[in-house]
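Q: what does this look like with flavin mononucleotide bound?
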Amino acid sequence: MTESFTQHYHQRTKYNPETLAQKSTGLDWSLQPSPYKEYKIGASFDLKLYLQQEARSQTDQWWKRLSLFLLCSYGLTAKISTTVAPLYLRAAPSAGGLYPAEVYLISRGRGLLPPGLYNYQPRDHSLIHFWESDVWSALQAACFQHPAIEHTELALVTTAVFFRSAWRYQDRAYRRICLDTGHLLGNLELSGSINGFRPCLIGGFHDQAMDELLYLDREREGTITVLPLLDLEDHLPASEDFPTALPSPTVTDFPDLPDQQLLSHCHAVTSMSEYLPPPEPNPVADKYNFPFCLKVSTLGPPISWENNAFLDGLEDAILQRRSTRSYTSGNLSFDQLLALLDFTYQPQNYIDTGLDEGPDYFDLSLIQTFIAVSGIDGLEEGCYHYSPAIQELRQIRFKNFRRELHYLCLGQELGRDAAVTIFHTANLQQSIERYGDRAYRYLHLDAGHLGQRLNLAATRLGVGVSGIAGFFDDQVNEVLGIPPDEAVLYITTLGQPQN
Ligand SMILES: Cc1cc2nc3c(=O)[nH]c(=O)nc-3n(C[C@H](O)[C@H](O)[C@H](O)COP(=O)(O)O)c2cc1C
């Protein structure tokens, strides 16, 4: 098959040791965009109010659930003093702390939120009602009459303001924007479970119609995901069969673009303007079940998320999560590794605690997991393929990779000192055959979502964790023995945090 644009984009935005130094330009700090969106008009709904006070009525209870849901998704959770202005960190991690995502709510107007459009304002934890007319049928049309929207009164939309991230990461920023949003999707899924909302993931929508519905400036920003919210307090039907991913066309005829134009073109070619039916479910192929290698079962007990009451340990983990800035290079226990894998890849083990047994992803059958073990008690060092279906690690290389990991992660010590490093990869060709160029969004969003579950499991276990989206792409495959047709999407490092 001829190369599609997203394959070209992926190739062009790879880091490699020869070109990285030439490409890296100094940052112009005066151009750093604000991570907040401002609206000149609109009524403000204060959500802080409901965080402290006890909910005495059903109405208060609903507002409290919505307030906590948004706080635990993308709210401000830490303040760092700097010589200029304080820097606020959020519930979801973000590459470089640039927060390209925006969160909107669309209300049908049948419940407590009047109809129209709302933007979530993390700075003062409020909603700004910037458009007061009913847009529900326009939302349904933009989402090709997705069945979940019929069952809901409220939909959440995530968008991206591209330059917030491109300012620092140039063309490669599109990858990070989707990974960041994937982390946000992880929070939405889990804080939804805590607060009685079930987000239904929609990745296939008419991009232009959604952008116009939200009054986005299409040159600078775009819709990334739409999530109608089932209110679990209303006992609405489960969402088993709602499709999450639709295909777009595959673009193989594209101009020879200079650097700095790849990101916007990537967003454009992964856009959709017509409904194409979803592909048949992929039979889960056990592609990397190599014969004669060391195989280790990963079956282990699930993580407990309770402190004093139902799921409050998960809420604490979301609010307390931080990316670890350095590791001691000490080992993690084998049980810690099992618990991290169990929570991330085996959601069915958490149904008794009230978590979603089948949270929405776009298509996890496309994503592979490779794990570099540098310091796990009782587990031989090397690189393993992890099969979530069989719950087994299969060793593909024997070696201590610390020195190489340091190099592959662009010299970041996090790579060298982590006890274990998890790589999410995908075969781009096969993914594009299923979903056209839109696959590129789905893969990075799903990888970020898995990354957020890893982050929260690590936080609960007292294990240090940090994502890494900057790496020498091809060298990762070569050094670790990951098959060359697997494109590396994202890295999560885990280890003993340095205090
Ligand atoms: C997609 C993604 C990529 C990241 N890449 C790196 C990285 O290469 N190096 C690093 O030290 N931290 C990385 N981080 C962590 C961010 O720097 C961190 O999330 C941000 O500073 C906010 O801090 P917090 O996670 O503690 O809230 C990454 C985070 C995400 C979500």
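The CA atoms of residues 326 and 414 lie 6 Å apart. The chain has a mean pLDDT of 95.
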